Amino acid sequence: MSESLIHQLQAAVDKALQSKNTEDGLKHLATAFSLFSKETHRLENAYMMLQHRFKAVNNELEKTNLELRKKISDLGVVSSYLDNILKNISQGIVFIDTDGIVTTFNPSAQKILEKDESQVLFTSFWNNFADDFFGFSMKTALTLGLSQNLSYLTLNSLTEKKEIEVLTSFIMNCPKPYQGVAVILRDITEVQKLQLIANRNDRMKELGEMAATVAHEIRNPLGGIRGYASLLYRDLENSKHLQEMASFIIEGTKSLERLVNNVLHYSRPIILAPSQTDLVDLIKELIKSLKVDPSFPSNIKVDLHLSQNNFVILVDKHFLRSALLNLIVNAYQAIQDDGTITISLLQQNNFCCISISDTGQGIADKDLEKIFSPFFTTKQKGNGLGLSESYKIIQAHFGSIDVRSQVGKGTTFTINLPLKR
Q: Comparing C-alpha atoms, which of 192, 202, 213, 182 is closest to residue 91?
């Protein structure tokens, strides 16, 4: 109610009270009631307008709230989507903000760098890593806003050596709290292993073809040399000294023939005759036959670690036995004094894993890439076909064979055979 109206009402009431007769008093009271009614009507209209305005504002607020809830829901979906990508992507992602705080450290990064999220996340980068851990100065990159070229990192863990591809990018087109260096890590150890296997297979194929050609070319003249040397041996019966020299030629041709036959045998494709075979029985029989062999050293102990009493798998029993025998013979020949050969059999996912470990002299790093190549050997006596033949047999079974070795400590060959083809 306005101050002017209050004064008018007060004046009308005062006049009504001061009136000398009833008629004047009623007249002034009627004026006061008329003013009051007008103000009441005005207030009522104002209230109605406020109600309408309130409803309109309330509707606007509800509409805004619905839009906000939808945006929050959409943001939650996007956040969950991005979080799932970060959790399941094979590349490791590490983000370091301009203050040097690690704000993103996904599970792949944990696996590659072998550090737990709780140890690294939301702490200073330099608490867990050297400044040049990724091959460049992190302080310089954050200060100058630099992105680095593609680089490679070698990590030596307790179980294996990892080769990591490192790609970095400085994020700057965003508010300052979200600026920083994004590091993307890709474990290329398996890729390099596959590349090595592919190169080895190509090399072995070429060597096999070349060896087969050379063996055929050698075989014919070799037969003639042996024939003529045999005739000389017969005709020199009365000259023992010359006959002995002819016998050396004959023995030499026999050695060459054995080598030629081995080469031709190696160059032929392996044709398997698979059958259901109990690997536990196969390994036990193989070890039993080895121990009764006079050439097997008595100072070497054989330990068997078999995960179960039987392990039936579809393989060619005779070829697989030959491959295992080559590896075991290679193992005990690597042991110079007392030592142990450990043979393990277990199932890992959809693969049967057979590992053969020895406590021998080990294999130098420069030789590891060559040991499955035909004719490569570090032994004084040996033609270098044993390990390459084992490699061919395992490949024919759609399996793989890996080797880990440390000079002076020993070597482990691991065979992985698929349980289902």
A: 182
